Amino acid sequence: MRGKTVIVTGSTSGIGAALAGAFAGTGATVVLNGLGGAEEIEAARRTLAERHGVEVLYHGADMTRPEEISDLIASTERRFGAVDILVNNAGVQHTDRIEDFPPEKWDALIAINLTAVFHATAAALPLMKRKGWGRVINVASNHAFGGGVTKCAYVATKHAVLGLTKVTALETAGSGITCNAICPGWVKTPLVDAQIEARAARDGLDIEEATWRLLIEQQPSGRFTMFEQLGAAALFLASDAAANMTGSSITQDGGWTAL
Prior knowledge:
Number of domains: 2
Number of helices: 8
Shape: globular
CATH topology of the largest domain: Rossmann fold
Helix content: 40-55%
CATH superfamily of the largest domain: NAD(P)-binding Rossmann-like Domain
CATH class of the largest domain: Alpha Beta
Number of strands: 7
Mean pLDDT: 96
Strand order of the largest sheet: 3-2-1-4-5-6-7
C-alpha cells in the first residue's frame, strides 16, 4: 500500500485502530479520525507513524456533522494529493426495546453509523474517479443480515450500510473503484465489553461466564474475531487481488451466518 492514502473513520480505538495499523504496516499514509483526549490521540498517532515509518495525520471531524466530514476528505486530498482508500468504520451502539428507545439515541446512531458513510463516500468518490482508482470499505456487521433484540437502530443502520455498499458498487462498476463491506461477528471491543458487563449484571454472572454465553449463542466457534483478521480482510479488499470484487461482503463470524 506504499504510495496510497487511507482514511479510517473511528480509528482512535477498537476495530478502526486495528485497521489503521494494518494499512500503516504496509506503508500507506494514514488519516486517523475519532474520539479521545488530545494527548492520547497524539501519542497513538506518533506511535503509529514511528513504528511503521509512514506519515500519519489526525483529523477530528465529528461524524454527525456533514460539513466536518467533507473537510476530512478535502483536507486529506489537499495534504496528500489523493484519497485512495476510504474505510467507513465509525459506529456507536445503544440498546433498548423499541418502545423505550430514546429518539435522540436513534438519531445519533443513524447519523454516525449510516449518514456519515453516505457523506464521506459522496465526498471521496469524485477524487477517486479523477484518478481512476479507489477503494471504499464499509465496516458493517453480522447484524446486517438479521435482527437482534434491543438493537433496532444498530440493526437498521447495518442493513442500510450493506444496501449503500451495493449501490456504491453498481454506480462505480468498471471505473477502477470498488466498494465492499466487512461484516464481523463478535469482536472484543469496548462496545462488546459493555454488552458483556450488562449481561453479567443482569443475570448475576461473572465476566468469564457472561462472555462465553454471549459468544456461544451466536458465534459457534466460541471465539472472538481478532483485530488482525479484520485488518487482513481490509488489506485484501484494497489489493489488486480484489480488483473485480465489488458490492460484496466478507463475514468473519465464527459460523454465525451459517446457523
